Amino acid sequence: MISQNLMFVLRKSHILPLLVTKELFLFQSLNSLLSLTLAGGEPLSETQRGGITWTSSLDTKIQNLPKDGKEKSSLKRLKHLHQEKVNRIRAQHRINVHGCDVPDPVCSFEELQSEYRLNQRVLQNLKDAGLNTPTPIQMQAIPLMMHGRELLACAPTGSGKTLAFSLPLLAHLQQPANLGFRVLIISPTRELASQTYRELRRLSEGIGFRVHIIDKASLAAKKYGPQSNKKYDILVSTPNRLIYLLDQDPPGINLNSVEWLVVDESDKLFEDGKTGFREQLATIFLACSNAKVRRAFFSATCTPEVEQWCRLNLDNLVSVNIGHRNAAVETVEQELLFVGTENGKLVAMRDIIKKGFLPPMLVFVQSIERARELFHELVYEGINVDVIHAERTQQQRDNVVNSFRSGKIWVLICTALLARGIDFKGVNLVLNYDFPTSAVEYIHRIGRTGRAGHKGKAITFFTENDKPLLRRYKKKTD
Fold first, then answer.
1. Judging by beta carbons within 10 Å of its beta carbon (0-12, 13-18, 19+), is residue 458 exposed, middle or buried?
2. What is the DSSP string of 191-258?
3. Which intervals of this chain are the motif Q motif (predicted)?
4. Which residues of 83-102 are buried (b: 16+ CB within 10 A; e: fewer)?
5. Around 170, how many Cα atoms within 13 Å sit in the side-chain half-sphere?
6. Would you say residue 104 lies in a domain?
7. Contact (CB, 8 A) for 165 and 421
């Protein structure tokens, strides 16, 4: 747990001003209906912030109307009806929001251009990628970030969280500028960072944004150090590579210009132990010293530690949850299979292969050693199988991932490394060969299938020794 002193240091001294209230959005959406009502009133004041023009709040306009006039009553009535409509939309899409002055959700990507001046080329890139309608997390998280609000967003795997933070980031930047990195995105694994990097490159195609990912920290020190030309805009990185640069003397990278810091799979970054990144994350926060920096946390699961830290250290926090918190995605058919003993796992695995399955399939095990053992058992079954874990080189891992994406590998054995955020299109089956150690880990594992509304299946083996864990999970969900 971060010490209280460190929490105090990380707390920003300024309070992020609210750019827009809910009433503002209401006025904007009802402006055409109320043109006659407001005729002759004072002109709307405008404030330029980040290239977006904001109007005055509806409450101020109400106060300017006659106290006993029918206009004021009509305006309040329309405001009430509008809020009822917003509540219905949130209920329909299972959007749960906690915070003050939360903007209305957006129901189409076109609204982002009319309301927030999102670049037309970005909208075209969305259409070219076949993305026509925002998902629930995108509906609410995008307008929040467009307002510059700090948030903690929790949504099931495969629900479009990467796009939910990428679009407002591109809208905020507007165009390339030689000011250094203005956006920093932290991912727990190299594979997830690469996926986010590709998504940003695709969305910003034709606009000219310089999106970078740190491949080799030693080369990055020369590229981004004090003598660089600062011709870059967005950086995607894992914590370890970034910390290496920050620890150089002088630092191999300058984060003073960062205006948005996004932490993806934030609960993983807060884990204790050697795989956790809490200490590194604190160092990165301190390095982002811009007084205007805003932060957003995204994850498929939300642990109490993450929520507590965000409430202590983020300004005017808004939390967004889609559906039940820490719940598995509904498009995944889940099956528990009792296999008796450890030896029964291999028998059940071979039975699945013998009966026939529709590849690709991801198989999760608890350790690198078990991944190697299972690989050697299955390589003689006549199927295309490979293994990925932390001890393989980055080139080997990249080759395996690419082969799995292209269909050359039917079965991929992996440790928890790949359970975090990797978007493999069309994974038909996830097999938990070893029982997950926590409910959160289980959710992330099975979330590799059933993505973007597609159906998937997850089978979890359990033995006599796993029954205590199974009972513990059942109590948590009852």
1. buried
2. HHHHHHHHHHHHHTTTTT--EEE-S-HHHHHHHHSTTS-----EEEE-HHHHHHHHTSSS-S---TT-
3. 111-139
4. eeebeebbeebebbbeeebb
5. 31
6. yes
7. no
The tens digit of pLDDT for each residue in 332-357 reads: 888 899 998 888 999 999 898 888 88
Q: Are 448 and 422 in contact (CB under 8 A)?
A: yes
Q: How far apart are CA 7 and CA 1, in angstroms?
A: 10
Residues 383 and 410 sit within 8 Å (Cβ to Cβ): yes
Length of the chain: 478
Q: Which two tokens stand for residue 15?
A: 């309070």
Which position has the token pair 């590849």?
Answer: 359
315 and 351 share a domain?
no
Q: Are residues 267 and 355 in the same domain?
A: no
Verify that 267 and 337 share a domain, yes or no.
Answer: no
> Do 312 and 344 have their domain in common?
no
**C-alpha torsion sign, points 32, 36, 38, 44:** positive
440 CB-near residues (< 8 Å, 6+ apart): 267, 301, 303, 326
Q: Give how many domains the chain has, as a whole number.
A: 2
Question: Tens digit of pLDDT for each residue in 148-190?
Answer: 999 999 988 778 899 999 999 999 998 999 898 999 999 988 8
> pTM for the whole thing?
0.67
Domain containing 472 equals: 332-477
Please indicate, yes or no, whether residues 303 and 337 belong to a single structural domain of this protein. Answer: no
Buried b (16+ CB within 10 A) or exposed e, 421-433: bbbbeebbbbbbb
Place of tokens 């905020």: 172
- Please state, in angstroms and rounded to a whole number, the distance separating the CA atoms of residues 65 and 36: 13
